[in-house]
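Same chain as my last thread, 117 residues:
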Amino acid sequence: VQLQASGGGLVQAGGSLRLSCAASESAFNIHVMGWYRQAPGKQRELVAFITRDGTTEFADSAKGRFTISRDNAETKNTLLLQMSGLKPEDTAVYYCYTVLLGSLTYWGQGTQVTVSS
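reply #2:
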């Protein structure tokens, strides 16, 4: 399974970014897709995920500011993370991941998000 993340960049505090993660695996085989992030010197932390049936969960730090969705069209399977009201503490490398039916987990390569104050 290949996951290709994109959409990171530099934005001012209060701005917005949309991260995308394109998966090579069929949506039929995916149980969960989501995002983690890792800031310099910190542990990787969960940001948000969405399950096969559309249930979503967010870290407390992301609630009310981030939304997560999936495009399960037949020819593509893309995960989206819309981030608004960005804060300098959101600065991190964001990694998408997927958990397949059968519990195998795969990671994307990461995309850098930098929020300037």
